[in-house]
Specification:
The structure holds 2 protein chains of 2 kinds.
Chain A: H1 2-6, H2 28-38, H3 43-48, H4 57-69, E1 77-82, H5 89-92, E2 93-94, H6 99-104, E3 116-117, E4 125-126, H7 131-138, E5 142-149, H8 157-166, H9 177-185, E6 194-196, E7 213-214, H10 230-247, H11 253-272, H12 298-310, E8 317-320, H13 332-356, E9 363-368, E10 389-394, E11 422-423, H14 424-434
Parallel strand pairs in A: 1-8, 1-9, 5-11, 6-7, 6-8
Antiparallel strand pairs in A: 2-4, 3-4, 5-10, 9-10
Helix pairs in contact in A: 4-11, 7-13, 10-11, 12-13
Chain B: H1 2-11, H2 16-25, H3 27-32, H4 46-56, H5 65-74, E1 78-83, E2 87-93, E3 103-105, E4 108-110, H6 114-122, H7 127-139, H8 146-158, H9 163-171, H10 174-178, H11 186-196, H12 205-213, H13 234-248, H14 266-276, H15 284-299, H16 307-321, H17 326-329
Antiparallel strand pairs in B: 1-2, 3-4
Classes of the chains: A alpha/beta, B mainly alpha.
């Protein structure tokens, strides 16, 4: 099959099953992907041609063939977006009419008239910075968990974030919850199945066995060598990949770590080559406009993700952390407002992009943070670490109905924090079962202990 | 941050309590961990928590939320001036902003100030084991044997909490020399590239190259600092490749160079590239891989006009490949 595709068979009309009977009949997305990549006239090939990076001809076709060879281009995808620092849930969804709220937040309370009413609970309003989420919610695309957390909340960033990443309140677990899912359902040859787009590995995707990849944006994954080009360059990169392939099973863990990275770079390089022009610009365009920011490329990363999904790359789980910081101990409004606005607008653009590309049915976006913040503001116009916070599931297949309830301000815990009424592990179990159709107990320790919530429409 | 770095270089091997006091008063730390916003009228727990969790005791090793709150009170009093052009400056201690009431920390009561906060942490029963384990794991890949933990803690405590004797003991331990390899951290890797070529920093590109390799100096990912256990992934491997390219900038072989004749053998080809890097030790498997690339590149030569040119491309490629090998990237 690989040889046939490399020979440039246009149109992809013949079934892949002719060449490999084990291949499933490509779903509609698969056929579109092959047409997109090969082009009706090989137009994309001509962008590279015999370019200086030697990505034309055989290398490009091999990359397409390699990506096409792997199952999973029509799998359900979960995009995990972590808002770092502990986002202030009380400014995302605010009880604007509650006098107690005004008293607890003398400088930070969302004013009565400033927010958008929350359709599921008249006592709550979306804060002005959450306007994009409000619009998505009004369209029935957001399942809100307004009081999510876990018993005996830990107010350390690292500990609490770690718990959310590993899907258990244990500091000893070293695999991410989505990493364990990928160890169960993924393959040993598809690093793109788990994609961190933070430029470095994301702990939520940490696996014990199967490979996952860390990139930034698809078009920025470019390799080059001083004074080398053309075929010699391709050959040199292949040589580095081969050394990685050979040494990744070394008994020395440090050697193995370096070798694995080299080996996986080879796979990812070949798969991402079609997304980058010779001058470094994206080789794809987006059907919608994304917000622009000088401080964050989070919107552009989402745009690249939508393009990769549309091309049928075998991605199952994605993790992104916007550069925005929500650990707002002082002067909260200065960073919270622009930060949340940017995140919301970027996610809204991403959702519209997925819908325009016909992908929305198989992509779900999860927005989470390690905890909420204390109701009583501190003296620096900021807030200290809290407990129960807010999390959201966004997509056309999100149920759109709130899970749990808004945690009251009159029954705070001994530290003055809101009490959770939904356990994040229950949400994970529910996602595994309802979104991935996977046994939750095979991923989340003590899965039977946690309530299940209806998340998906 | 530069001031903080100078302070740490001056005091890192001295007395740990003194270092902790200097860190507590350091403007960069006061700013980042809200120390200069922590006043008796509005306590801010940020530094109090991280001082115990990250710098002296370890998460949840013998302190409670109440200890965090009381430490925050003891640490009150630091302030800074602020101007539109300069931002915060003139970090100082103002007794009027200090909460001088009685606090209860780790079961002890007193009108504690910031120096007391530091002593309480250093003398806490969880501190010596935290210190020993953190320093050991920085230098040595093998886990610390329990008998060694105990003797190193004794060295540390008996010296009056001096860092130098502890580091010396660790650096003399056989496990440093016989144990598993460790991946070289990005900054050390970049410095090593330049040293191997006899070069120094000549461009500020090394700042963003640091970011691409996963270690932008003065910008650790969070207040806990760098994660030394997992430096490499697909993105940061390519960042290291960029670092190699920048280190080799200026020594790219010109296509008129005559040092690469048609009769050079694959092993000679590799030897020439290795000598550019000061003849590092590489395993036989790595050398075989590089020689195999040499032979393959040779086979690309189809026409006479490709002869010299391709041999030079091959030599440039080998110079780039050598520091990307797992051998080079670990020690």
């Amino acid at each position: 099959m690989r040889a046939a595709l490399a020979a440039g068979a246009p149109g992809g009309g013949s079934s892949l099953r002719e060449w490999d009977p084990r291949m499933p009949i490509p779903a509609g997305t698969g056929i579109d992907r092959r047409r997109f990549l090969l082009g009706a006239t090989g137009g994309l090939m001509s962008v590279y041609g015999a370019g200086p990076l030697g990505l034309g001809g055989r290398a490009l076709a091999d990359g397409i063939a390699e990506a096409a060879a792997v199952q999973g281009s029509s799998s359900s995808v979960l995009v995990s977006i972590f808002l770092a620092g502990g986002i202030d849930a009380l400014s995302v969804l605010a009880p604007t009419e509650d006098p107690l709220y005004q008293k607890l937040r003398p400088t930070l309370a969302v004013p009565l008239s400033a927010g958008t009413p929350f359709t599921e609970d008249p006592s709550l309003s979306w804060g002005p910075a959450a306007a994009a989420f409000a619009a998505l919610h009004n369209a029935g695309k957001v399942t809100v968990c307004p009081g999510i957390g876990y018993t005996s909340p830990d107010m350390s960033h690292f500990t609490s974030r770690h718990y959310w990443e590993v899907g258990a309140t244990s500091t000893r677990i070293e695999t991410g919850w989505l990493g364990r899912y990928l160890d169960n359902v993924g393959t040993s040859t598809t690093p793109l199945q788990g994609l961190s787009m933070d430029g470095e590995m994301n702990p939520t995707l940490a696996t014990a066995r199967n490979p996952v990849a860390a990139i930034d944006r698809p078009e920025t994954f470019a390799l080059w060598m001083q004074g080398v080009g053309g075929d010699v360059f391709s050959m040199a990169l292949d040589s580095a990949s081969r050394l990685g392939d050979a040494e990744r099973r070394s008994p020395d863990p440090a050697i193995a770590q370096v070798a694995e990275a080299a080996s996986e770079v080879g796979v990812v390089r070949r798969a991402l080559a079609p997304f980058r022009q010779a001058n470094g610009d994206p080789a794809y365009t987006s059907p919608v406009a994304y917000p622009k920011s000088t401080e964050s490329d989070f919107p552009q990363r989402l745009a690249g993700l939508a393009a990769m999904l549309a091309a049928g790359l075998p991605v199952r789980c994605v993790a992104l952390t916007p550069e925005t910081q929500f650990d707002t101990h002082a002067s909260q409004a200065e960073t919270f407002d622009p930060g949340l606005s940017l995140v919301g607008e970027a996610i809204a653009a991403f959702q519209a992009d997925l819908e325009a590309r016909g992908l929305a049915d198989r992509v779900l976006t999860q927005v989470w943070s390690e905890f909420g913040r204390r109701p009583l503001e501190n003296g620096s116009s900021g807030t200290d670490h809290g407990a129960a916070g807010v999390s959201m599931l966004i997509g056309t297949r999100a149920g759109g109905k709130m899970v749990g309830e808004w945690p009251s301000l009159t029954s705070l815990d001994a530290n003055g924090n809101q009490r959770e009424n939904v356990d994040f592990r229950g949400v994970y179990c529910s996602l595994l079962e309802q979104w991935f159709d996977h046994d939750a107990a095979a991923v989340i320790p003590e899965a039977g202990r946690f309530a299940r919530y209806p998340l998906i429409a | 941050m530069l001031g903080q770095n100078r302070m740490m270089r001056a005091r890192a091997l001295g007395n740990f309590h003194d270092l902790l006091v200097q860190v507590t008063r350091d403007p960069a730390i006061l700013l980042w961990l809200s120390g200069s916003s922590n006043t008796k009228y509005s306590p801010n727990e940020n530094y109090a928590r991280e001082m115990m969790e990250l710098f002296t005791l370890g998460a949840d090793r013998g302190y409670s939320q109440r200890d965090v709150e009381e430490q925050a009170r003891a640490l009150t009093g630091f302030a800074a001036d602020w101007s539109e052009g300069r931002g915060p400056y003139n970090f100082h201690f103002d007794p009027k902003l200090h909460d001088d009431g009685v606090k209860e920390i780790f079961g002890k009561r007193g009108r504690f100030g910031y120096r007391d906060s530091c002593w309480l942490c250093v003398e806490h029963r969880s501190h010596p084991s935290f210190m020993v384990s953190k320093l050991w794991n920085y230098f040595i890949g093998a886990p610390i044997p329990s008998s060694v933990t105990r003797s190193l803690q004794r060295v540390y405590v008996r010296s009056g909490y001096e860092v130098r004797p502890l580091v010396e003991a660790i650096l003399r331990h056989p496990l440093l020399y016989e144990g598993p390899r460790m991946v070289i951290p990005p900054v050390v890797y970049c410095a090593g590239l330049l040293r191997a070529l006899g070069q120094t920093i000549t461009t500020d590109s090394w700042a963003w190259i640091g970011e691409m390799t996963g270690q932008r100096l003065f910008e650790p990912p969070n207040v806990a600092g760098w994660d030394y256990t997992h430096w490499l992934d697909t993105s940061r491997w390519s960042g290291r490749l960029t670092a190699v390219n920048y280190a080799l900038d200026g020594t790219v072989i010109a296509d008129t160079d005559k040092r690469y004749p048609a009769d050079e053998t694959p092993s000679q080809v590799v030897a020439k590239a290795l000598s550019h890097w000061g003849d590092p030790q590489l395993s036989s498997g790595t050398r075989a891989n590089l020689e195999s690339f040499s032979r393959s590149a040779q086979r690309l030569i189809k026409g006479d006009w490709e002869q010299t040119g391709y041999r030079i491309l091959r030599q440039n490629a080998l110079r780039v490949l050598i520091p990307t090998t797992p051998d080079w990237q670990t020690c």
